[in-house]
Amino acid sequence: MTFVMDPLLYPAVTKHGRQLDFHAFSDRVAPPTFGYPPTRGGAYPGLSDRIHSTFQLLQGESLAHLSQGMLGNLLAALRHHFLCEREGAEKPEGGRACQEAEPEWREAGLYSLCERLMFGASLRTLYGTHTHTHSPGALERLRGKFSAFDAWFPLLVGGVPIRLLGRTNALRGELIGHFHPRSVQQWDDPSDFIRARTQLLNEYPLTDVEKGAHHFAILWASVGNTIPAAFWVVYHLLAYPEAFAAVKSEIQEVLGIQGEGLALDDDITITNEELDRMIYLESAVCESLRLCSAAMNVRVCQEDFQLPLNSQHSVRLRKDDIIVLYPQSMHMDPDIYPQPQVYRFDRFVSGDGRRRSDFSKKGQRLRYFLMPFGSGGSKCPGRFFARAELKQLVCVLLLYCRLELAHTHAHTHTHTPPALDTSRAGLGILPPKGDVSVRYTPIREKEKKEERERENV
Ligand code: HEM
């Protein structure tokens, strides 16, 4: 493997997507990881390209529909969490109305809160709803299996045979089973993206298990990175009060919301245009992604050729050479980002209050300066949706909840950040090594309760 370390040379690699191919690599790694046959080669003519063309349905016009669904599902998940779920209490299944529990301050791990909200909301938004298979209890069990599988993911991607990884094979089988075509066809209102993929898979001689495995791979792609990213975005806002205040006031200003926030039964709409106008929120998301992303961009050389690096230099590559970009080293480069270890929520805002994109190295402006979503041919097709989801989660949490870190240092009100779990380096967003406790309560319900208490005195 050859790592290209100078970010000024990244464009030379991404420009040569034909010779330096990403899918030659991903088609070697993804199929044994998720359990479907390789999509390239003679067995399934055109499948790989046609899968690629479905990625358009995560962008453009389809994105507005996806985002609208995601916001509704996030809000539903938050309401359900406050009104129906108590630690240790029995979770009601779909179809039965849940008992309204008196909202109160709760303490929980921020990672598990983000996971709970994002997993269910993403699954429902992409795949649709079903009273039985997507009931809260069923989702909870699915989420448990997903995180158990995900814990083994680095070894699986690293090529360790699945039969050597304990219960992973059985877990994967159960997860794939959730997406059996018989189940999938019962789900209401799936996204255009999943509908198109289902139709496409039906055109090829794949077994039901293989079709389920393709769907399961998309579930992993859609939440495997988004959940840890959500944790870091929210964690940083809570750990830096100045960032929290600036982002919250921007959200309220753009959405025209007065006072401390909204009541749980208030509805809300947030368009993608409104999210785009939240420059400080965008910057805070970028800054968290800068600090926690560690994806490798891998390319396999398809033929012997001379790769031009700049006007003076080129390098000779051989067929099957592997070239890697590792943007984390760029994200942590002090020449590009002064004091790179420090979280600065407004790093990506320019002096005149617009998005900042003029980052340089050695005095030369960089074409690529932030690459959590990959590059060129391997750029994440879900990146617009992912950014929208992260911003929506922040909007929902900040507008509907009072939320604070549970254990801050008494005198300084500061918090020691959790370490990054580097066992996943190279694979995407690094989760924290341990969870962080937060306290939270609905904003308006609490006010009402306080009002009642005052009236009773
Ligand atoms: C913060 C969240 C996310 C991050 C950081 C992220 C990052 C990435 C990266 C780095 C890749 C390239 C993988 C590689 O080079 O090996 C990728 C691929 C992919 N992502 Fe994402 N992603 C995120 C969210 C999503 C979401 C929400 C979806 C879909 C709903 C999605 C769908 C995909 C798909 C389908 C691919 C494979 C593309 C291909 O085969 O060409 N991602 N993602």
TrEMBL record:
The lineage of its organism: Eukaryota, Metazoa, Chordata, Craniata, Vertebrata. Keywords: Endoplasmic reticulum, Heme, Iron, Lipid metabolism, Membrane, Metal-binding, Oxidoreductase, Steroid metabolism. It is found in: Endoplasmic reticulum membrane. It holds the Pfam family p450. Substrate binds at residue 225. Its cofactor is heme. This is 25-hydroxycholesterol 7-alpha-hydroxylase. GO terms for cellular component: endoplasmic reticulum membrane. One of its GO terms (biological process) is cholesterol homeostasis. It comes from Clupea harengus (Atlantic herring).
